[in-house]
Every structure is written in C-alpha cells, then in structure tokens.
Amino acid sequence: MSDPVVTRAQVLAEALPYIQKFYGKTVVIKYGGNAMISQELREAVISDIILLNLVGVHVVVVHGGGPEISAMLRKIGKESRFVDGLRYTDGETMDIVQQVLCGKVNKDLVATLNRRGGRALGLCGMDAGLFQARMLDEKYGLVGEIVQVSPAPVEDSLKEGYIPVVSTVAQGVDGENAYNINADTAAAKLAVALKAEKLLLLTDVRGLLRDPQDESTLLPEVALSDVPLLMKEGVIQGGMIPKVGCCVEAVRSGVRDAVILDGRIPHSILIELLSDAGIGTLLH
C-alpha cells in the first residue's frame, strides 16, 4: 500500500511544471451550473481559484446566475421564458437580471472568496464600459451581442493582485438599455481581450461526448479543424453548439486553448490545470 503522505508529495511534484507554465499568465474561468448551486462543489471551486491565485496565476472569474434569476422571477410571480435556449428578457426581467447578477450573486461570490483568504473584487460588465453590446435580436428582448470589450478594469485589478469576479450584464451602445449577456460568450470575449492563456467553461456535462448517452466516449482533445465534421456528424449538438462556438472563437482570436470542463467533479479546475490527467475537452 502506498504511503498517503508520499502520494500527496507526488501530486505536488506533478503540479510544479504546470504552476511554472501558468505563473503570471491569465486564466479565465466561466463559473456556473451545479458548481454554483452545490455547496460542496462551490467550496471546491472557491479553494481552487484561491490556490491558483496564491501560486501566481492571474485568475478571472466570469459568472452567470440563471437559477437565481429564475427563483427571483418566481418570487414576483413572473414565469421564466426561453427562446432558442436564451432567456427572453423584457424590461422587468432585465431589472431582475441586473439586481441578481450585479448584486446578490456577484457580491456573495466575492464575499465567499474573501472569507476563504482570497482577495476578490466584484465587477459588473457595465463598469467602465467593460462589456458594450447591442441588441442580438428582438425576439430575445434585452439580450445583447457584445461589440466591444474594454478590459482595463480587469487588468488593473489583476495588477493589484485581486481576483476579478465579473457579472455578465453589458452597457448598450444602441440606446440607454442594459443587456443580458450569455456567460459563456462573455467569458470567451473577455479571454480574448485579456490575451488569456486558457479559457475554462465549467458546465454540467463531462465534456464533448461522441455519444451523449455514454460518458466514456469523451473526446479529450479537439482541433479546430475537426469541428465542422463533428458538427456534420451530430456529435456537437444542442447546448454544446454555442459552448464549442465560444471556444472556437476564443482560440481563433488568440487564446492558447479552451476547455469544456465538468464542474460536477470537485476540484476539476486544479485537475485540469495542474495535473497530467486533464479531464475535460480541450480545444486547441
């Protein structure tokens, strides 16, 4: 039987080259799904983010908050409505989105990071024009398409040693509206603007599966040139289409690689970044 102390030492030794690789580099993590809802997973994500920050990785967190928005809408007697997988966002819903994302969800996450020993700072996509957007399509209401990212507030936070935590609401450029932005899209756009080394999209599936019903068919690596054929074959389908699309756009625009990562696995971020294992689907 192996000595658990030796095993832990081996794990740390295995992490060293990866810490050296990512030291001083920027990693953007889109945080959402079960990893936000489950207390155990939430604690694991928080500790992963703090550890990465302490070993010199510049971590940027971009978060959604769909379940919290739906819960608040229920409280005011309003039903959530989705069009093509996007939340239909009328004026009243946009007010709730802004209050929940920029307020409660963002500040709760910042407070949790700070209580655990991190140095987190909350930012809204409207702060200093961080995310600027126009209406995506009238059929979605106040859902925006990002047209410009001004990353200075995030860059300034990183220079001061903070962990920026960014909510996905954008300033409108086609009027005085605020816009609801898909969190995967916002994370990808921000990763490009920051010239990030890596983009991690935490999701509620194992990664990209050749057979969606069989988790053993995980595709651990996908080259951008493989994507059109995988789309044609129906391997990339449903909710995976926009996620892969975000990763493709990010990598084509200069992010070294992007990973669709199973946020249901405790410490999946550390396993992916600081070990030989790698547990998601890497697009490069």
Automatic annotation (TrEMBL):
Its GO CC terms are:
cytoplasm
Q: What is its main location?
A: cytoplasm
Q: What is its EC number?
A: 2.7.2.8
Task: Give the Gene Ontology MF terms in alphabetical order.
Answer: acetylglutamate kinase activity; ATP binding
What Pfam families does the record point to?
AA_kinase
What are the site positions for Transition state stabilizer?
K30, K243
Return the protein name.
Answer: Acetylglutamate kinase
Q: Which organism is it from?
A: Candidatus Flavonifractor intestinipullorum
